[in-house]
Amino acid sequence: MCLSLHQYYTVLIIIALHYVVKSGLDAELYYVRNDLISHYALSFNLLVPSETNFLHFTWHAKSKVEYKLGFQVDNFVAMDMPQVNISAQGEVPRTLSVFRVELSCTGKVDSEVMILMQLNLTVNSSKNFTVLNFKRRKMCYKKLEEVKTSALDKNTSRTIYDPVHAAPTTSTRVFYISVGVCCAVIFLVAIILAVLHLHSMKRIELDDSISASSSSQGLSQPSTQTTQYLRADTPNNATPITSYPTLRIEKNDLRSVTLLEAKAKVKDIAISRERITLKDVLQEGTFGRIFHGILVDEKDPNKEKQAFVKTVKDQASEIQVTMMLTESCKLRGLHHRNLLPITHACIEEGEKPMVILPYMNWGNLKLFLRQCKLVEANNPQAISQQDLVHMAIQIACGMSYLARREVIHKDLAARNCVIDDTLQVKITDNALSRDLFPMDYHCLGDNENRPVRWMALESLVNNEFSSASDVWAFGVTLWELMTLGQTPYVDIDPFEMAAYLKDGYRIAQPINCPDELFAVMACCWALDPEERPKFQQLVQCLTEFHAALGAYV
Ligand SMILES: *[C@@H]1O[C@H](CO)[C@@H](O)[C@H](O)[C@H]1NC(C)=O
Ligand SMILES: *[C@@H]1O[C@H](CO)[C@@H](O)[C@H](O)[C@H]1NC(C)=O
Ligand SMILES: *[C@@H]1O[C@H](CO)[C@@H](O)[C@H](O)[C@H]1NC(C)=O
Ligand SMILES: *[C@@H]1O[C@H](CO)[C@@H](O)[C@H](O)[C@H]1NC(C)=O
């Protein structure tokens, strides 16, 4: 393949793919422009939406260029030979013209089909020609009578989902549009208020921004004007400083990070889409999905690894995508046997971003615990108390490592842990959790969705986060373990939580939970952050308790 058409042609050739994006906007991708081949554009193996049967290419040449057009399809059972409305051989038109390629599925099987369109171009009947390869992928589905997918039907979960181009139903579209409009209005009002406030607080802000920038570190989100405004509003100098080195006060203002910045953060771990194969959907929310995926080794294509692949659907907003990428980086670069950080990302143009984490075959801890609860009804020995304490120790170990590294998790909960068949537990980031576990997050009057029932009082009231507030969340996680995934404070209104905690109320001791263990939880919920145990102490005391349990068996 030649590098530049310029070497051979002194003619102007333009070949572009013209496509209509979901939103109705027209878009064009140039493959050849002013004789220059865009290898970047050609390198895409673009995914054709399942419901799209026609691709339109625009082309023209200023002088005589001959072409030969051919197709290859890797699965004729799933797809017919592509049809075009131009001849297989001829001259590139001198005027801007369109040709159409038809990619029709046979409807006989479910399969992802690879399509190669090859265009050989020759100028002035010379011997030299340029080969252009256009690669496409399309998900073909077996045609059945419209099967309604029910969440409980195991068989339907085996169908291969199109991760990116599943068509949103009209009702969800309407829902998203209305939510979007509401958010825009709220956001606008918030901006106006913030601007007004900033005007009156400029001075305080100036003093404050210095401390804000000096206290933020690699993993924290960049501070924004909103942050400083909040900081000015809440006199944090009055709060007691714990023995943890830093008490960082941050706001999760992800709107301050653009999608481009979020993508830049994962550029160094970006891999090609070709290396990932998606299998079953493990978890699905309104805009996010977690797949069981296969990751092909970079050097040896025969070597494969299983993986979790987090991605978003078509209707996900830019903020949601940005949030997934940003939150996925929370544990990046940390190495501990009880942590599961992001390993790769896929941020190719024209594809929804994907985040890749190592696989843990029993999946999400919260879902696993709930499963245990169902099984427990028939088989009380399904999972022992000792196993649960062992899981808690592992979580405390991972958190202890985070505290030593001065990393604040801010959203520790069973839903943000994963487990495998050896009962090894790993803490992971909270990317997509808001979408996958919407009942665990609440908005308290503002636009921010918080894990209210897992938050320490100082985090709820003053937006203060520290390793001590992570200890609080650990106490709640321990409670989740002992109750096999119940929701804490289930009958307390999220708006009442702060008042309820201030009054000294906490979650009740679960049935069958030994007093010693409940005492550990209760310590984690001390009002004063300094009175809460450190993770290292929690590891120690849980280990002793675990040993004692073993001695009784
Ligand atoms: C064909 O390509 C060769 C190099 O591969 C070059 O030397 C030659 O000039 C080209 N011929 C024409 C007609 O462009
Ligand atoms: C284009 O050229 C290549 C290389 O000679 C050849 O293998 C292929 O069959 C040609 N394709 C078409 C569509 O003629
Ligand atoms: C091929 O189809 C497209 C779209 O239907 C049309 O715009 C174009 O003129 C057709 N080209 C030819 C050569 O018939
Ligand atoms: C579901 O799958 C099982 C085997 O896994 C099969 O026996 C059963 O017939 C399937 N049911 C449907 C509705 O396809």
Automatic annotation (TrEMBL):
Transmembrane segments: 174-196
Amino-acid positions noted as binding Mg(2+) in the UniProt annotation, renumbered to this chain: N416, D429
Renumbered residue ranges of the record's region Disordered: 212-236
EC number: 2.7.10.1
Biased composition (Low complexity): 212-228
GO cellular component: cytoplasm; glutamatergic synapse; nucleus; postsynaptic density membrane; presynaptic active zone membrane; receptor complex
InterPro entries: Kinase-like_dom_sf, Prot_kinase_dom, RTK, Ser-Thr/Tyr_kinase_cat_dom, Tyr_kinase_AS, WIF, WIF_sf
Membrane topology: Single-pass type I membrane protein
Manganese listed as a keyword: no
GO BP term (any one): commissural neuron axon guidance
Residues covered by the WIF domain: 12-140
Binding residue positions for ATP: R415
Leading EC class: transferase
Keyword Magnesium: yes
Cited Gene3D superfamilies: Phosphorylase Kinase, domain 1 (3.30.200.20), Transferase(Phosphotransferase) domain 1 (1.10.510.10), Wnt, WIF domain (2.60.40.2170)
Subcellular location as annotated: Cytoplasm; Membrane; Nucleus
Assembly information from the UniProt record: Interacts with DVL1 (via PDZ domain).
Function: May be a coreceptor along with FZD8 of Wnt proteins, such as WNT1, WNT3, WNT3A and WNT5A. Involved in neuron differentiation, axon guidance, corpus callosum establishment and neurite outgrowth. In response to WNT3 stimulation, receptor C-terminal cleavage occurs in its transmembrane region and allows the C-terminal intracellular product to translocate from the cytoplasm to the nucleus where it plays a crucial role in neuronal development.
PANTHER family: TYROSINE-PROTEIN KINASE RECEPTOR, TYROSINE-PROTEIN KINASE RYK
Protein's UniProt name: Tyrosine-protein kinase RYK
Gene for this chain: RYK
